[in-house]
Description:
This protein is α+β, with helices and mostly antiparallel strands. It has helices at 7-44, 106-113, 137-141, 171-181, 215-218, and strands at 56-59, 69-72, 116-117, 127-129, 146-154, 160-168, 185-186, 189-191, 194-196, 198-206.
Amino acid sequence: MYVPSRETPRKSLVATAAALLLALSLFLVLPLANHVSFQRVRSEGGLSSVPTSPPRTVDVRSSETPGIRLEAAGDFPVPVPQVAGVERKIELEPLPPPVLEPHVPAKQREAAFFVFDVADLDAPPIPIHRVAPAYPGELAARRLEGEVLVEFRVNEEGEVLDVRVLEETHPLFGRSVAAAVRRWRFLPGTVDGRRVHFRVRLPVTFRLDDWSTPERDALALASDDGAGR
């Protein structure tokens, strides 16, 4: 009769544990060996699965091109474009030298541009040639009398210009006075010794009783009533 030994179950357990340990070792070692072989094959073929450093971002800010961002892989330097400045040459024309005008007294400056009144002259104007206005025959026959206010300008040569009848009681009186005054001549009027243009306003009265001496009214430029502004 066979009697089993008590040491048999113990040996079986030891053998089973050893087999499990061997299987676990193979399970852990085989994947690592395959990974090493894969890395070696890729290295021999010129490839490498070793990860490189992530791309580096370089900010390039320029006053001419704002907002541009350049990305470069690895540690290679990134060339920054250089924009050449534009030179602007502005040529300024030289200013002409200032021209100094000679000093002229204020009264003489006015004399070159204005027509003076009789009261502004150095002396009252002196007529050197006078023609009396004719009394219109039609108005004399009708025994009509009248008045005329005439204005005229005398130039630097003493000639009468710009004769205007300002007031008249009858057109025939005005025409007679204007025709006569245009033929008058004066000594030139002066301001500070310089010849100037001046303006005269002259009232002329037509009276039947005293018309035999018309110069008393028509030509009395030097009197207070005969000359004015």
